[in-house]
From TrEMBL:
Source species, domain of life: Bacteria
This protein's UniProt keywords: ATP-binding, Nucleotide-binding, Transport
Keyword ATP-binding: yes
Family: Belongs to the ABC transporter superfamily.
Occurrences of domain ABC transporter (ranges): 9-259
Transmembrane segments: none
Annotated protein name in UniProt: ABC transporter ATP-binding protein
GO terms of biological process kind: peptide transport; transmembrane transport
SMART domains: AAA
InterPro entries: AAA+_ATPase, ABC_transp_ATP-bind, ABC_transporter-like_ATP-bd, ABC_transporter-like_CS, Oligopep_ABC_C, P-loop_NTPase
NCBIfam families the UniProt entry points to: oligo_HPY (TIGR01727)
Signal peptide residues on this chain, from the entry's feature table: none
């Protein structure tokens, strides 16, 4: 009898609600940042969580690492519910679960040297004993991420963005973690540096046998470094599949729109799916039914009224769409959704301003002659 492998990390109906300020005459606004998300992360894989800003992907990542407390639901690590962990157990858990923050300029203490920053986890978790051993381990970690060991005595302000992010990666590796979460680890870097950091993360994953979760808002960053992709929209997962399946045959209209929105390398090539148009609804005022129906060209009355479940459609593939099978049968019918009311208003204001500038720049004729 074969045993089913156990995931290293699992979320079960995970939810997070943020409450805004209230007043005497109004109730506090409630934002459902993550809504009943369930997923599994397997040993040795790289899972990418993608979506637009405000989709809840970063919040989900922090919930998985217990950097935020969930409003509802559970997180399991190696089969154990983290809600039942004591403070001492949670401290030990921090060694296994580490994060690379988005902004390398804000995530490093400017008053600490690189040696103190990278060596802090070694001291907190009693990984090495003695200052000399800690200094040697810091130099080893810096070399591992492609930085000279001599940088250990410098301060964060002396480095570029890419170098600071490498320092953050070295700090995350200091505790010898089993799982590493990258919260948009390259979005704050120059394009020329992004590929270097992505290649470094992929190399470290192979070298140390890491499991990785990468949060990103661009599909191009994760295409060549992830095994599976979870697509999020307004706090929910709308599609979950292998990376090749996501890019070769996206099922959900939102996934299709994200892929179509990526820049094309070949000019003049017609896009096979519609571009994403309109604005994301206010998270404090969620639409009924499918949350994507306000921006979807294929929405029906069922989509507007009934929320689609996240159903398994094939091996290792899930999608939350009422019409996914129908749309797959007829991929030639590409519809372009109408512009949103906000876009139409902005366009009208732009045209009005353009006409005003044109009228001011046109010389007016004068009658008569000067005295």
């Amino acid at each position: 009898m074969s045993l089913t492998p156990r995931p290293i990390l699992e979320a079960a109906a995970l939810s997070k609600v943020f409450k805004g300020p209230s007043s005497l005459f109004s109730k506090p606004k409630i934002v459902q940042a993550v809504d009943r998300v369930s997923l599994r992360v397997w040993h040795g894989e790289t899972l990418a969580i993608v979506g637009e800003s405000g989709s809840g992907k970063s919040t989900l990542g922090r919930l998985l690492l217990q950097l935020l407390s969930a409003s509802d639901g559970d997180v399991f690590y190696e089969g154990e519910n983290l809600k039942q962990f004591s403070a001492e157990q949670m401290k030990k858990l921090r060694r296994d679960l580490q994060i690379i923050f988005q902004d390398p300029f804000a995530s490093l203490n400017p008053r600490m040297t690189v040696e103190e920053i990278v060596g802090e986890p070694l001291w907190l978790h009693n990984i090495v004993s003695g200052k000399a051993d800690r200094q040697e381990k810091v130099r080893e970690l810096l070399t591992t991420v492609g930085l000279p060991a001599a940088f250990s005595n410098r301060y964060p302000h002396e480095f570029s963005g890419g170098q600071r992010q490498r320092i953050g990666i070295a700090r995350a590796l200091a505790s010898s973690p089993k799982l590493l979460l990258g919260d948009e680890p390259v979005s704050a870097l120059d394009v020329s540096v992004q590929a270097q950091v992505v290649n470094l993360l992929e190399s470290l994953k192979q070298q140390f046998g890491l499991t990785m979760i990468v949060v990103a808002h661009g599909l191009a960053v994760i295409r060549h470094m992830s095994d599976r992709v979870a697509v999020m929209y307004l706090g929910q997962i709308v599609e979950l599949a292998r990376t090749d399946d996501i890019f070769d045959q996206p099922l959900h209209p939102y996934t299709q729109a994200l892929i179509a929105s990526a820049p094309l390398l070949t000019p003049g090539v017609k896009r096979p799916v519609p571009l994403l148009q309109g604005d994301m609804p206010n998270p404090a005022n969620m639409p009924t039914g499918c949350r994507f129906h306000t921006r979807c060209a294929y929405a029906t009355d069922e989509c507007r009224l009934v929320e689609p479940p996240l159903e398994t459609v094939s091996d290792n593939r899930m999608v939350a769409c009422h019409r996914w099978s129908e749309l797959q049968r007829d991929r030639t019918s590409v519809l372009v959704p109408p512009p949103s009311a906000a876009f139409t208003l902005r366009r009208a204001l732009f045209e009005q301003a353009s006409q005003s500038r044109l009228s001011l720049s046109t010389p007016t004729s004068t009658q008569g002659t000067r005295p």
